[in-house]
Structures are given as C-alpha cells and as structure tokens.
Automatic annotation (TrEMBL):
Annotated keywords: Aminoacyl-tRNA synthetase, ATP-binding, Cytoplasm, Ligase, Nucleotide-binding, Protein biosynthesis
Sequence similarity: Belongs to the class-II aminoacyl-tRNA synthetase family. ProS type 1 subfamily.
CDD domains: ProRS-INS, ProRS_anticodon_short, ProRS_core_prok
All copies of domain Aminoacyl-transfer RNA synthetases class-II family profile, residue ranges: 38-462
Organism: Candidatus Vesicomyosocius endoextente
Protein task: Catalyzes the attachment of proline to tRNA(Pro) in a two-step reaction: proline is first activated by ATP to form Pro-AMP and then transferred to the acceptor end of tRNA(Pro). As ProRS can inadvertently accommodate and process non-cognate amino acids such as alanine and cysteine, to avoid such errors it has two additional distinct editing activities against alanine. One activity is designated as 'pretransfer' editing and involves the tRNA(Pro)-independent hydrolysis of activated Ala-AMP.
UniProt KW Protein biosynthesis keyword: yes
Subcellular location: Cytoplasm
Record-given protein name: Proline--tRNA ligase
Any one biological process term the GO annotation gives: prolyl-tRNA aminoacylation
EC number: 6.1.1.15
C-alpha cells in the first residue's frame, strides 16, 4: 500500500473522552472513529489490525476442531423467553418489535440461538461432541460504555459453544479450549493471566477468565505470591477463621457527633479501620438482613446474591422504619438476622455504631450476640491465599476471554436432547467460550506503547514494514530504489507501506511511530551513494545501515 492511497487520519489532539492511553492512541493513529457513545467505526488501518487478530483466532479455533458458523445478530424473543432470560437479562438487552409487533432483541450473546440450532441438527449421541464458533457483532446496551473499544455497546466477539453427552466430554473440550486460548493470546503477544472466575449471568459450574494485566483494567484479580492460585476478586472465597485475640477492655459509649463513615469514625477515635465493624442493611425475599463487615473490607455482592438470591440495599426510610439509625447502626439490639463476615467475627474490642444518633461503642465484643457466620467480602491485598499458600497480591486486569462449563443450564430449559446409547433421550451438556476480539486491540496497546505511539507486534501490526524515502518526489534515484524495494516486499508477501507523501521526513517518522509499524527502512540519496538503506525497529532506539541488496533477506530473517 502507498500512503497517499490510504486513509490514515493521524492527529495530535486527544479527544476529551479518551481517558486511557489505548483509546487515545487508537483515535490518534486513525484506527477508529467515534459515531456515538459506545459505537465506533473501524477505519482502514483499524480493519487491518482487526482482521489480523481475527485470523489468529480463526486459525487456532479451526486447529482445535471447532467449526465456524455465523448466526444472526437479531434474535427472536421466544428463544429468550424459553431460556428465562428475557426478563432476567436487564437493560443491557436491547429489545424491540418489528412491523408485525413481534418482539426481538439484539444478541448480547448467543446461547439461546446456538442451543436452538443444536436441537435442530444434533439428534444422536454419535454426533457429539461438537464445538461451533463465530466471529460476530454483539450488542450490549452497557450502562457505562467507555475506554474506546474496551467497553463498547456494539463490539465483535468470538463466541464458541460446545455440545456433549456428559461432563467428562465437556471437561475434555474445556481443556482443549483452555489450551487454544493460551495459544491465541501467546500468538497475539499479550501478557495475560488466567484466573478462576464467577460465571455471572451466563451461569454454569466452572469458569476461567483470561486477563491482560494493565493498570487501566476494570477488573481486579488476585494472585498468591507463593502458589499458582489466581482468581477474579469476585471469586476469592474465605473460610472460617480461628479467633486469636482476647478481650482486654470494657465496652463504653462515645460521642462521635456527625461522624458516620468508617473513615471519619476511625480518624476521630484514632482507631484503625480494621478494628471497626460496619453494618449494611439489605432487603431480601426473606426480609431484611444486617450484614457486618470489618471496616476496611468491601461487600462482595455476588456472595450475597449466592446466599440470599436477588437483594437490594435498604433505603433510608426502610432503615428508619426498622428502628435503626443510619450511620450509627451497631451489632446490638437488632430485630433482624445478623450475618457476620468471617474476618469481622474474630475481632476483639472493636468499634461499631451504638444504634443511637451521634454515638458509637468502643471495646465491643461478640459475646452474647446471636449471628450467622459467613463469607461476605472481597479480598484485599495481603489476605492469606485461600489455598493456604502465601499471601494475595492484587492487580488490575482487562478481561479478554472467558470460558465456562455451562452444564445443562440452557439445554434443560430449552429441552435440547439427543438419543443416548441406550435409546433414551439425554439432555445435552454444554460449554461456552468467548473472546473480546475488538477489546484485544486496546488491551494490546495498553501493554505496548511509548510516548511516540503504539508498538505493534508483527502478528497484528497494520503493516509489517514502512519504507520512508527522503525526497521521493524529487530524486528519481530515491524513487526508483524505494519502488524497487516496495515491489520486492510485495512479491515476498510482506505487508509493506510506502510513504510516498510530499511530507517532511519528521512527519513521516512520527506517523509510522504513532502507527506502531514494527520495521522501518529509510532510503535517501546519501544512503544510496553507499548502496545502503537505513533500518530501525520500532521497539529499539538504534539505527543501522544495511546493503540495499540484503534488505529483503534482512527483513525476512526478522519475520521468522
Ligand atoms: P465484562 O465483565 O468486561 O463486562 P463479560 O463478562 O460481560 O465482560 P462475556 O459475556 O464473558 O463478558 O463476553 C466475552 C468477552 O467479550 C469478554 O471476555 C470481553 O473480552 C468481551 N466483552 C464483553 N463485553 C464487552 C464490551 N461491552 N465491549 C467490548 N468487549 C466486551
Ligand atoms: Mg465475563
């Protein structure tokens, strides 16, 4: 390709809403263009990168034995009603009616459609296992689309769904997909971690997430500093702890005035947050519950959901009607169930609300208090690893892939059966496997950039090499050499860009660096006098001169 024939709208300005570096660079390098909130067009450079990412995914999925299909993005409501998700999925599911008043949605995922497809064509156990995948557009009406292609409303996902006679077969394919994902992310050159995950609204039994480590990541992931243990913060579980401390003080009531937050109370009383207990009131289908946590801990809503099902935080009015004083709720005289987190229940001589406006209690102990002990909280840095080995470190991650063992969650409600070996109907067992194709590009850039721009790997760079001729439009010798080199690269199937613009060389260098093209060759009259070209790798600072006649073999040797 020649630069003059290509739309490469590089820019210096950073749009206001581009808060993270990958978003800024994707706009500045002209990969994407914003249409509306969470909706982006891919420009020619962006498409080149996207297609390379897709091809790596496609090749590895094919290698794993999965079969490519393509399902519609528009999905009939009936299927979602059958699975029970039409009502459950929430506002992310964009629903609409057609001209005949039939209900539809834009697919945020394809479990229903693929299960329906499987029911039509998978009849006998002899056909199993099978794994189908597609690379296709998804729509999720995200509450907070942000970070460019990281959290979009319309995005491209590779989703795969496998069908099995039993759990053993599912486990086998799950392991194949686990390995395939590692191969894909390795080929893409991402620094990633695999963590135990919660299976969220898609549901199911076992699941792992693949996270690209980046400070801008929206997910929090926890690792042991001594073992392989790694889990999404939502999934780190704690067990009951032994109480080691002994009470040494007598309980008393202190005036704390308008101090209602743990932070203010702990500062005011000069007590660490660790030694305070906070109470949250929730409304469940079985009534109100009080949840007690250590002051420095955060509630894990998924754990609460697993314990009580759907719940809401109580409103100020509800709290008042329960006779409680918001900001001063304590563990005593509660008329509702009290559920205490394991780590709060081993505290001694702690601080909590006095159930009286403007007062807290100090030197409080659990003796005589009736409560249920449970795991309610998120992990924090320095927690003991749940596998008993080492302590937890916490890092930020961008989720780029997610694999689930769905079991019979969809097949049983949608009645997807095959005839088993004994002639009886058997409910199909399923797995599902997603990759955020568009998100991968941003995640890669988060990990591979410098102050000049993106640093693409050869695998996904829009071009593998750029030729920058100095005075291409003035020096016939430079033009002839640049064109010759360009033709050699094309013949050798190397993705080459020839910068044939009448631009200042500084601009041509800056653009190729912003675009992150891995290799650059400069041709000038001075170099030509010596029969040379100048070479520089995007990820190195030094430049070297090589013989013009060796240029092709030199680049080819870098591509192995
Ligand atoms: P997240 O927790 O980030 O919302 P998810 O758990 O909802 O993701 P999955 O349903 O597992 O996502 O979808 C598979 C993959 O699709 C994710 O691992 C992620 O890489 C990608 N993905 C999900 N939502 C978006 C989005 N709004 N924009 C871009 N990519 C997305
Ligand atoms: Mg997920």
């Amino acid at each position: 390709m020649k630069t003059t024939k290509l739309l490469i709208p590089t820019q210096k300005e950073v749009p206001n809403d581009a808060k993270i570096i990958s978003h800024q660079l994707m706009i500045r390098a002209g990969l994407i263009s914003k249409l509306a909130l969470g909706l982006y067009s891919y420009l020619p450079i962006g498409i080149r990168v996207l297609q390379k990412v897709e091809n790596i995914i496609r090749q590895e999925m094919n290698k794993s034995g999965a079969q490519e299909v393509l399902m519609p993005i528009v999905q009939p409501a009936e299927l979602w009603k059958e699975s029970g998700r039409w009502d459950k999925y929430g506002a992310e599911l964009l629903r609409f009616t057609d001209r005949h008043q039939r209900e539809f949605c834009l697919g945020p995922t394809h479990e229903e459609v693929i299960t329906h497809l499987a029911m039509q064509y998978l009849r006998s156990y002899k056909q199993l296992p099978m794994n189908f995948y597609q690379i296709q557009t998804k729509f999720r009406d995200e509450i907070r689309p942000r970070f460019g292609v990281i959290r979009m409303r319309e995005f491209i996902m590779k989703d795969a769904y496998s069908f099995h006679l039993d759990d053993a077969s599912l486990q086998e394919t799950y392991e194949v997909m686990y390995k395939t994902y590692c191969d894909i992310f390795n080929r893409l050159g991402l620094d990633y971690r695999i963590v135990l995950a919660d299976s969220g609204s898609i549901g199911g039994d076992a699941s792992h997430e693949f996270h690209v480590l980046a400070d801008s990541g929206e997910d929090t992931i926890c690792f042991s500093d001594e073992s392989d243990y790694a889990a999404n913060i939502e999934k780190v579980t704690f067990s009951k702890q032994e109480k080691t401390c002994q009470s040494t003080t007598v309980e008393s009531k202190v005036l704390t005035k308008e101090k209602t937050s743990i932070e203010d109370v702990s500062k005011f009383l000069n007590v660490k947050e660790v030694n305070c207990v906070k109470i949250l009131i929730i409304k469940t289908k079985d009534g109100f519950k009080a949840l007690a946590l250590r002051g420095d801990h955060e509630l894990n809503e998924i754990k609460i959901h697993n314990l009580f099902g759907d719940f809401e935080f109580s409103t100020n009015n509800e709290i008042k009607n329960l006779g409680l004083k918001k900001g001063f709720i304590g563990i005593k005289n509660l008329d509702i169930d009290l559920i205490v987190d394991y780590s709060a229940s081993v505290l001694c001589d702690f601080v909590c609300g006095a159930n009286e406006y403007n007062y807290h209690l100090i030197g409080v102990n659990w003796k005589g208090i009736k409560f249920i002990n449970a795991d309610l909280r998120n992990a924090v840095d320095g927690d003991y690893s749940p596998d008993g080995k080492g302590k937890l470190m916490i890092k930020r991650g961008i989720e780029v892939g997610h694999i689930f063992q769905l079991g019979t969650k969809y097949s049983s409600v949608m009645k997807a059966n095959v005839i088993g070996e004994s002639g009886k109907a058997v409910t199909i067992t399923m797995g599902c496997y997603g990759i955020g194709v568009t998100r991968i590009i941003a995640a890669f850039i988060e990990q591979n950039h410098d102050d000049k721009g993106i640093i693409f790997s050869q695998a996904i760079a829009p071009f593998q090499i750029v030729i920058v001729p100095i005075n291409y439009n003035k020096s016939t010798r430079v033009k002839a050499l640049a064109d010759k080199l360009y033709q050699q690269f094309i013949k050798a199937s190397i993705d080459v860009l020839l910068d044939d613009r009448k631009e200042h060389v500084g601009i041509m260098f800056a653009d190729s660096e912003l675009l992150g093209i891995p290799h650059r060759m400069v041709i000038s009259d001075t170099h030509a006098d010596n029969g040379n070209v100048e070479y520089k790798a995007r990820n190195k600072t030094n430049k070297i001169e090589i013989k013009f006649d060796d240029a092709l073999s030199f680049i080819q040797s870098k591509m192995i």
